[in-house]
Amino acid sequence: MDVLDLAAVKREKTGKEIAKKIRKEGLIPAVVYKGGKIGTNVSVEKSSLLKVLHTKAGENVLINLIFDEKGDKKKKSQKNVLMKEIQYNPVTDEIVHVDFVEISLTEKIEVEVPLSLKGDAIGVKQDKGTLEQILWKVKIRCLPTNIPEKIEADISALKISDILLLKDVKVPEDIEVLTGIDSFVATVSPPRAEEVKEEVPAGEEATEPELIREKKVKEEEEGEEAGEETKKETKQEGKS
Description:
Elements: E1 3-10, H1 16-24, E2 27-34, E3 37-45, H2 46-53, E4 62-69, E5 72-88, E6 95-102, E7 109-118, H3 122-125, E8 130-133, E9 137-142, E10 151-154, E11 163-165, E12 176-177, E13 184-189, H4 202-239
Parallel strand pairs: 1-4, 2-6, 7-10
Antiparallel strand pairs: 1-3, 2-3, 4-5, 5-6, 7-9, 8-13, 9-12, 11-13
């Protein structure tokens, strides 16, 4: 993975009002952490930050943060960093603050990377099943320069009711997977049962309802006749 440069400016003052002022100037307030402790308060250009973010690496992009040392523009400090957290405005969805974490390019780190599915599952292509992705991110450990943009899981061989486990997904040898190897990645569900309609010849479509109606009328007529006979028998019994 490439390391991208990002210019930054050291800042001494902090607080909400200072942060608002910084944002009005087209900058984003940020903090660089090292070993879990605050190391340096900086500001970065919003436009430059967005360019860095809009790479294939996404939020896992490796950054070479460059800033003036003690206000001297001739002396530059450089820190290799990753984005630890990005805070967004809940209304405008714009970036309001960034936390960076300083790293060493020669020491392994733990990060989460996207998991994507590739291929056409047999159960979907041939048997009209439904593909369901269960796992979307994978936690890994590796050198910063070996962080993959994503991990791809081949689902081509999945049939109806098959389940792909994380342990069956191929990953580069220099990457250690920390997410449970028995985690479900994807499955193919059976197609939903549909009502099967019998095809009726065109000639019968018009006659069948008529036959049913005639049968019903006939039954009603027979019922009425039986009722009349019963009434007659009752009257005769009454006379006798």
